[in-house]
Design brief:
The protein has about 675 residues and is an alpha+beta fold. It has 17 helices and 25 strands. This is mRNA guanylyltransferase. InterPro entries: Dual-sp_phosphatase_cat-dom, mRNA_cap_enz_bifunc, mRNA_cap_enzyme_adenylation, mRNA_cap_enzyme_C, mRNA_Capping_Enz/RNA_Phosphat, NA-bd_OB-fold, Prot-tyrosine_phosphatase-like, Tyr_Pase_AS. Keywords: GTP-binding, mRNA capping, mRNA processing, Nucleotide-binding, Nucleotidyltransferase, Nucleus, Transferase. Its EC number is 2.7.7.50.
């Protein structure tokens, strides 16, 4: 049996709430004007009257008296609380389900009943009843309107239906990226909980088209392997005519770095909306749900002209609960034993000193340059790419990482649960422009496969084979395609595997390679070639800095009596470093108070010199780290000392035999000094 119903009709329980006039039932049925027809007629009558009264002055705006029941928004505009949203009466109530989502216009609370004829009402009780008739039970309502005047959220909660408010401005503004992240997370969480029952999510803005369609398109993009064109068309099919504002459609293509096909056209504004866009005087009708002002122009990340810095905040914040889940996931994947889930689990090197220098002769090491960039781990999932900073905070960036595919076949999928480690640098190009690049130097998990116990040399090779090459191959195909649907050039940064060099090439690394780098470097990293991945402090992972660049990160505070104090951490608590002093070369000391500052040691004056504020860190170095840095400063291993020691080490049989074998294997890699590196 097929059930059909008028989406705007009131369900039977509501009809009983209003007494029926017997004489009205027996009367001859007359034509009743629709809201659109009434508005058109009254608008024309008003214009004609104004034209007669003021023939020489043209139409004037008539200020109507304010009604008693008002609502004042944040921008001090007043609204009639009982005023219906423009176009709401004739807007279809809801569309067809998309996955588990039902797009809908906003249901109006009972305080609107006196202003709506019975056949046009659409309240919470009617929503629940209509969906039950169609065999659907609601479990969640996501409200995207920018006001609270339409209904009380507690009405849903009384029916055991969860209500989530994600306020988004309408009219000239698309929802911000953090709101999108919140929406997608709520939907994914709800869907995960529906293991034994099939419940639905009602998503609404004011009319259930632009903001609702925009959010649903984002959800489809992050939960299914489809293009943005397919997502837009899926919504239009379920909720005709779909998204009808060009800015929303353009924003979706730009966000997902896809080229908009010529075949995708923005549908015309629906008749019920066009007729309500003007008031009786022909002026635009504003509602407290519309938002104020003009939307900011859409910009592509690679076209931004402001200078890049390492302090720039990349990506968009994610919901707190999602971040906590991903923190626990990372700890589980890395098998890290920590007391506090908020501790960053990434591997940290220790400063090179005379004692641990001997490790280079006991284990087989490779070397790389120490870039002066920003440390990030990166988590790749089906629903997005997440940068993880030293504060163990996650921010979503829009990137594409296809998985490795067979010859002559396209990528069928993208990475899911792949955990990388690396650093973000800013390359200065020859033409004066800047380019941000993420240098990957380790992979700990590959599509949910743990790799932390495998030797570093295997993990390092997997970076190129499993992460970099699939991107490069697909990008090349896209560039050669007549109509590429994805634009890698719109991504916020480039991606490359960081190179590691035989220990015997350290001289060239220091003398030829580093001076030609297009980003800053402050030393070397020595990586055990056969080492597993070690979380937190890794005593076998060594860093050497140019002596003048050895540094410690302190917490600096200025007290009320203008005393300056430096703090470190010891066992998770602040430790005052008495007798230590810091000098600043530029700004007033008070401007650094309460911040983490990186300081180098001036041995002549025996004071610390502030180098920069560490915006990427929220805590100072641990006291043990300080002791190791001071040991390194005291030992004063200069560049000449280091090269002399390495020259002796590489003559050992352990190195000599492996170096000869690996020179042939690595001959296809670019050697240091072969040109300007980016």
């Amino acid at each position: 049996m097929i059930i059909s119903m008028d989406l705007n009709a009131s369900p039977l329980p509501e009809e009983d709430a209003f007494p029926v006039d017997v004489e009205e039932e027996n009367a001859v049925e007359e034509h009743v004007e629709t809201a659109v027809e009434t508005m058109r007629r009254e608008r024309e009558e008003r214009r004609q009257r104004l034209k007669r009264e003021f023939p020489d002055e043209g139409p004037k705006r008539v200020v109507q008296p304010m009604k008693d029941k008002t609502f004042q928004s944040e921008n001090t505009r007043f609204y009639d609380r009982s005023k219906l949203p423009p176009g709401w009466l004739d807007c279809p109530a809801f569309g067809q389900p998309i996955d588990c989502i039902i797009p809908s216009k906003v249901p109006l609370g009972e305080h609107f009943d006196g202003y709506i004829t019975r056949g046009k009402r659409y309240s919470m009780r009617q929503v629940i009843h209509q969906q039950k008739v169609l065999g659907r039970e609601l479990g969640l309502v996501i409200d995207l309107t920018n006001t609270t005047r339409y209904y009380s959220p507690s009405d849903w909660q009384k029916q055991s239906i969860k209500h989530v408010k994600i306020a988004c401005k309408g009219r000239d503004s698309v929802p911000d990226n953090e709101s999108v992240n919140n929406f997608v997370y709520e939907v994914l969480q709800f869907r995960c909980r529906q293991k034994h029952s099939k419940k639905y999510i009602l998503v609404h803005c004011t009319h259930g088209h632009n903001r609702t369609g925009y959010m649903i398109a984002h959800f489809l993009m992050r939960s299914q392997h489809i293009s943005i064109s397919e997502a837009i068309q899926a919504f239009a099919h379920a909720r005709p005519p779909g998204i009808y504002k060009p800015d929303y459609i353009d924003a979706l293509y730009m966000f997902y770095h896809e080229r908009r096909p010529d075949t995708i056209e923005c549908p015309p504004t629906p008749e019920w909306k066009r007729s309500s866009d003007l008031d009786l005087n022909g002026d635009a009708v504003l509602d407290d749900d519309d938002g104020v002002g003009v939307a900011a122009p859409l910009q592509e990340d690679h076209l931004l002209t402001e200078p890049m810095t390492n302090d720039d905040i990349l990506g968009d914040a994610v919901p707190y609960d999602q971040q906590e889940e991903m923190r626990r996931l990372c700890h589980r994947l890395l098998d890290s034993k920590v007391r506090v889930v908020s501790q960053f689990p990434g591997s940290h090197p220790v400063s090179l000193n005379r004692e641990n220098l001997q490790l280079l002769s006991q284990r087989y090491y490779y070397a790389t340059w120490k870039a002066d960039g920003t440390r990030y781990m990166m988590l790749l999932t089906h629903d997005g790419c997440y940068l993880i900073d030293r504060n163990f905070c996650f921010r979503r960036v829009q990137m594409r990482f296809p998985i490795k595919f067979k010859l002559n076949e396209g990528a069928k999928d993208t990475h899911n649960i792949t955990l990388l480690d690396g650093e973000m640098v800013i390359d200065a190009q020859d033409n004066g422009k800047q380019e941000r690049r993420y240098l990957i130097y380790d992979v700990m998990v590959l599509n949910n496969l743990p790799l932390i116990k495998r030797p570093f040399n295997e993990r390092w090779k997997m970076i190129e084979e499993e992460v970099i090459q699939p991107r490069n191959v697909e990008r090349q195909k896209m560039e050669q395609s007549r109509i590429p649907y994805y634009r890698y050039d719109m991504e916020p940064f480039r991606v490359r595997r960081k190179a590691f060099w035989l220990l015997s090439t350290v001289w060239k690394l220091l003398k030829e390679f580093i001076p030609k780098l297009s980003h800053a470097a402050d030393g070397l990293i020595f990586q055990g070639w056969d080492d597993p991945y070690v979380t937190r402090t890794h005593e076998g992972l060594l860093k050497w800095k140019y002596p003048e660049m050895n540094s410690v990160d302190f917490l600096f505070e200025v007290l009320d009596d203008d005393r300056h104090q430096l703090y470190l951490y010891e066992r998770g608590k602040k430790k005052l470093m008495e007798g230590n002093h810091v000098v600043f070369s530029e700004a007033e000391a008070s401007s650094y108070s309460g911040k983490i500052i990186e300081c180098s040691w001036n041995s002549d004056k025996e004071v610390w010199v502030c180098m920069r504020i560490r915006t990427d860190k929220s805590t100072p170095n641990d006291f043990n780290t300080y002791r190791k840095v001071m040991r390194s400063i005291k030992d004063n291993i200069t560049e000449e000392n280091l090269l002399s020691e390495i020259d002796e080490i590489v003559r050992l049989p352990m190195y000599a035999d492996r170096i000869q074998t690996e020179i042939v294997a690595h001959s296809h890699h670019q050697q240091p000094g072969a040109g300007r590196r980016r």
